[in-house]
Write the structure tokens for this entry.
Amino acid sequence: MSSANLARKRTLDVLAACDAAALYERYAALEVEMPAPSPVRGPEIGMVMLRGRAGGGGALFNLGEATVSRASVRIDSGEVGHSVILGRDTSKAQMIAHLDALAQRADWADRIEREFVIPALETQNDEAARQAAETEATRVDFFTLVRGED
């Protein structure tokens, strides 16, 4: 996978995991400056099958289904953005698709990174650190007591 594709995947992963309220707030602040998107597909709600592996490395099995929202949009300069997110938030899916299309343009890529991706990553890292600290606080150390022979 090329570095451009890896960067795009990273951007989409971070935005999909981003809190919807924070994303809406940042998006609304820039919406008037952005080129308007035209829908290509969706937004629509569907299902995907979740697969698992027995024992972590064994045979595949169907774990269950998850609801997803997806959207594809095109901006006037021709770039097409896509998104697939867990849940039923079609407006978030459309927003992420629009941001994906903009991030493909040289004049918007740095701004999307600076104003959307980096703040979302910082929030996600802070949450992960908080959860790790909370989990560490409940840690129990077990030890083995060896008794001598009678």
About this structure: The chain has a mean pLDDT of 86. The two ends are 66 Å apart (CA to CA).
